[in-house]
C-alpha cells in the first residue's frame, strides 16, 4: 500500500496551517479596525479642515489617489515574502505613546500627523519590510493630506502673495495696461485691486504638488527619474504662472467692465479656470519632454535619449 507523504496531503480549512493563517488575518483585521477607530476623531478633524479651508479642499482626493496607487502596484506584492515583524509592533507602541503625550499637550497638528507613522508601523508589524516597501508610495501620498503647520503656512503665504503681485504688475505693463503696485495692491488706472492672502496661490501650489505626485507615481512611472523630479519641481512655477494669469484676467475685467463685474464675475470665473490652465501647462511640459527626449527602441539602447541642441543641430547622446 502506498504511503502518502505530508507534502501530498492538500492543506484545507481543517489543517493547523490554514487555521493559523485565517486566525492571523482575523487578528490583523481587528488591529487595523481598532487603530482606524482610534484615529477617527483625527480624520474627522482633517476633513473639517479640508471643508473649511480653501487652501486644502484638495485633501478629499488624497486617500482615493493613495488607494489607486496601491491598486496599480498590487502585482509587485509577493505574498511569499510577507512575515510579521516584532520591530513593527514596538514602533506602533512607541507612536501611540507619543500620540498620547501630544494629545495631553494639545499639540493638535502633531497628533494628527502621528496617523502616518502609526499606519507605517502597523504595516511593518503585519507584513514585514517587503510590505512596508510596497506601501511606501501610497504612504508618501498620504503625507499631502496633512495641512501645513501654521508657521510654515504663514511663511509661504507672504512671499507667494508678493510674487503674484509683482508678476501680475509686470505682465500688465507689458500688455500696455497702466498699473501701479503699492505693496500687494495693484492700482489699475484709478481702480485699486488687492492681491489678497486668499489669492496668494498657495491653494494652487498644494493642489499641483498633489497632482504632480500622483502623475509621477502612476501615469508616468516609465519616465526616467530626472524627468520625474523635474515634473515634481515644476509644480511651483506652474502654480505661480496660473495664479498670475488669474490676477491679470481679473485686472482687465476691472479695467474694462468696472469693479462690480470684476469682483463678482471675473474673479470667481478666473479662479475656476486656474486648474484647467495649470493642466494645460503640465501638458505642454510633457510635450516639451517628448520633443527634447526621444526613445531608443533598440534592444541594447537606453530607455530614453537626451538630445542637446548645438550650433550645428541636435546631437544624440546616450545616457
Keyword list:
mainly alpha; 11 helices; 2 domains; 319 residues; 3-stranded antiparallel beta sheet; disordered N terminus; single chain
Structure description:
The protein is elongated and about 75 Å long. The protein has two domains: 20-147, no CATH class; 151-294 and 308-318, no CATH class. Residues 1-20 and 314-319 have low confidence and may be disordered. The protein is mainly alpha-helical. It starts with 15 loop residues before the first helix and ends with a strand. A hairpin with a 2-residue loop joins strand 1 and strand 2 (185-188). 65% of the residues lie in helices and 7% in strands.
Q: How do the strands and helices of this protein lay out in sequence?
A:
Layout: H1 16-38, H2 40-52, H3 62-72, H4 86-104, H5 108-113, H6 115-142, H7 150-174, E1 179-182, E2 185-188, E3 191-194, H8 202-217, H9 225-233, H10 235-257, H11 259-292, E4 293-294, E5 305-306, E6 309-310, E7 313-314, E8 317-318
Antiparallel strand pairs: 1-2, 2-3, 4-5, 5-8, 6-7
Amino acid at each position: 500500500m502506498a504511503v502518502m507523504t505530508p507534502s501530498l496531503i492538500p492543506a484545507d480549512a481543517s489543517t493547523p496551517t490554514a487555521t493559523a493563517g485565517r486566525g492571523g488575518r482575523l487578528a490583523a483585521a481587528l488591529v487595523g479596525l481598532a487603530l482606524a477607530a482610534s484615529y477617527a476623531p483625527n480624520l474627522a478633524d482633517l476633513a473639517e479642515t479640508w471643508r473649511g479651508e480653501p487652501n486644502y479642499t484638495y485633501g478629499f482626493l488624497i486617500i482615493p489617489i493613495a488607494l489607486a496607487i496601491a491598486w496599480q502596484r498590487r502585482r509587485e506584492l509577493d505574498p511569499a515574502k510577507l512575515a510579521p515583524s516584532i520591530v513593527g509592533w514596538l514602533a506602533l507602541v512607541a507612536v501611540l505613546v507619543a500620540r498620547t503625550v501630544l494629545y495631553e499637550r494639545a499639540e493638535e497638528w502633531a497628533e494628527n500627523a502621528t496617523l502616518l507613522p502609526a499606519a507605517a508601523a502597523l504595516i511593518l508589524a503585519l507584513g514585514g519590510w517587503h510590505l512596508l516597501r510596497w506601501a511606501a508610495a501610497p504612504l508618501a501620498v498620504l503625507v499631502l493630506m496633512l495641512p501645513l503647520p501654521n508657521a510654515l503656512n504663514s511663511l509661504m503665504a507672504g512671499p507667494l502673495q508678493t510674487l503674484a503681485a509683482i508678476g501680475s504688475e509686470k505682465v500688465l505693463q507689458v500688455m500696455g495696461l497702466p498699473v501701479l503696485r503699492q505693496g500687494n495692491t495693484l492700482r489699475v488706472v484709478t481702480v485699486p485691486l488687492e492681491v489678497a492672502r486668499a489669492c496668494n496661490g498657495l491653494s494652487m501650489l498644494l493642489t499641483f504638488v498633489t497632482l504632480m505626485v500622483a502623475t509621477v507615481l502612476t501615469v508616468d512611472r516609465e519616465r526616467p527619474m530626472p524627468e520625474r523630479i523635474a515634473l515634481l519641481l515644476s509644480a511651483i512655477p506652474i502654480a505661480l504662472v496660473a495664479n498670475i494669469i488669474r490676477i491679470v484676467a481679473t485686472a482687465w475685467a476691472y479695467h474694462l467692465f468696472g469693479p462690480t463685474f470684476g469682483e463678482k464675475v471675473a474673479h470667481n470665473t478666473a479662479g475656476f479656470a486656474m486648474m484647467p490652465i495649470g493642466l494645460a501647462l503640465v501638458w505642454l511640459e510633457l510635450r516639451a519632454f517628448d520633443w527634447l527626449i526621444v526613445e531608443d527602441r533598440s534592444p541594447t539602447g537606453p530607455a530614453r535619449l537626451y538630445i542637446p541642441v548645438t550650433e550645428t543641430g541636435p546631437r544624440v547622446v546616450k545616457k
